[in-house]
């Protein structure tokens, strides 16, 4: 039996035309395209394991993924050949060999997500990367609202549960808000170890709702968080504004 070699990838993709990262029956996913194109170039089947299962329409510039194969391939040559056949919506930013102890979903120190929204109608080629939010928003109030979620909390009210028994306690290390004048977009940056399904989008949707209404304040969010009710009525932000920016791992010497 031939030895298996593991490779680590950092991948960027425009999620607009995909039904998420994860393999799905009868729906096109980012993983499916990566696996199919690898086989076209190298005539080998692989199974790609990603660090985060981004949903339909969500983008990434720093998705981390691994796969194993019995082939020994120069990572630079592999990346060049693979990228040459990938669609414009997917790019392998880096490739390297790592030892078998590395796993894309383990030893994660911190994930960074961006959520972008526009306060005025964006240019057409930017529209798919942010939410055009029609109401005026006080950024100072938005910052204050988002601080409700920083720290360790039970986020049952701000997620969609696949399993009612799932542990919904998570820690958000930091949330910041910045206006990017070049693109006329507001960037919400969220950092934490792990996140629940739809958690960031529900937090953003709720916080923007409160920040854009004078008669509402952060107590609405504090009450919703305390109630631990996943059926609460505060809206969920749309997928196109969310981007997986970066994944940091515990310090490991796993490169070969």
What does this structure look like?
By secondary structure, the chain is of the alpha+beta class. The protein has 2 domains: 5-103, Alpha-Beta Plaits, CATH 3.30.70.580; 108-246, Alpha-Beta Plaits (2-Layer Sandwich). The chain contains 5 helices and 10 strands; from the N terminus they run E-H-E-E-H-E-E-E-H-E-E-E-H-H-E. It has helices at 30-42, 75-83, 139-146, 199-211, 219-227, and strands at 5-13, 49-50, 59-69, 90-98, 108-118, 131-132, 151-154, 169-180, 185-192, 242-249. Strands 1, 2, 3, 4, 5, 6, 7, 8, 9 and 10 form a 10-stranded mixed β-sheet that branches. A hairpin with an 8-residue loop joins strand 2 (49-50) and strand 3. The longest helix has 13 residues, at 30-42. It is globular.
| Beta-strand proportion | 25-35%
H and E string: EHEEHEEEHEEEHHE
Please name the fourth-level CATH homologous superfamily of the largest domain.
Pseudouridine synthase I, catalytic domain, C-terminal subdomain
Envelope shape:
globular
CATH class (first level) name of the largest domain:
Alpha Beta
Compact summary:
The chain is α+β, with helices and mostly antiparallel strands and 256 residues long. It has helices at 30-42, 75-83, 139-146, 199-211, 219-227; strands at 5-13, 49-50, 59-69, 90-98, 108-118, 131-132, 151-154, 169-180, 185-192, 242-249.
How would the blueprint of this fold be written?
Blueprint: E1 5-13, H1 30-42, E2 49-50, E3 59-69, H2 75-83, E4 90-98, E5 108-118, E6 131-132, H3 139-146, E7 151-154, E8 169-180, E9 185-192, H4 199-211, H5 219-227, E10 242-249
Parallel strand pairs: 3-10, 5-6
Antiparallel strand pairs: 1-3, 1-4, 2-3, 5-9, 5-10, 7-8, 8-9
Helix pairs in contact: 3-4
């Amino acid at each position: 039996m031939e030895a298996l070699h593991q490779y680590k990838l950092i991948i960027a993709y425009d999620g607009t035309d995909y039904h998420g990262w994860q393999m799905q029956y009868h729906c096109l996913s980012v993983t499916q395209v990566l696996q199919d194109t690898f086989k076209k170039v190298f005539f080998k089947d692989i199974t790609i394991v990603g660090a985060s299962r981004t949903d339909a329409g969500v983008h990434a510039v720093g998705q981390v993924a691994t796969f194993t194969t019995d082939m020994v391939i120069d990572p630079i040559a592999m990346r060049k050949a693979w990228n040459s056949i990938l669609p414009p919506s997917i790019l392998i930013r880096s490739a390297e060999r790592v030892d078998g102890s590395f796993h894309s979903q383990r030893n994660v120190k911190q994930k960074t997500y961006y959520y972008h929204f526009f306060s005025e109608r964006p240019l057409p080629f930017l529209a798919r990367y942010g939410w055009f939010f029609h109401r005026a928003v006080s950024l100072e109030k938005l910052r204050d609202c988002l601080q409700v979620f920083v720290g360790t909390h039970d986020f049952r009210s701000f997620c969609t549960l696949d399993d009612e028994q799932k542990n919904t306690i998570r820690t958000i290390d930091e949330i910041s808000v910045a206006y990017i004048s070049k693109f006329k977009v507001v960037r919400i940056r969220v950092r934490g170890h792990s996140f629940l399904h739809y958690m960031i989008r529900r937090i953003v949707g709720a916080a923007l709702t409160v920040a854009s209404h004078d008669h509402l304040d952060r107590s609405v969010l504090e009450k919703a968080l305390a109630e631990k009710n996943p059926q609460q009525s505060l809206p969920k932000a749309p997928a196109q504004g969310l981007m997986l920016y970066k994944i940091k791992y515990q310090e490991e010497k796993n490169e070969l």
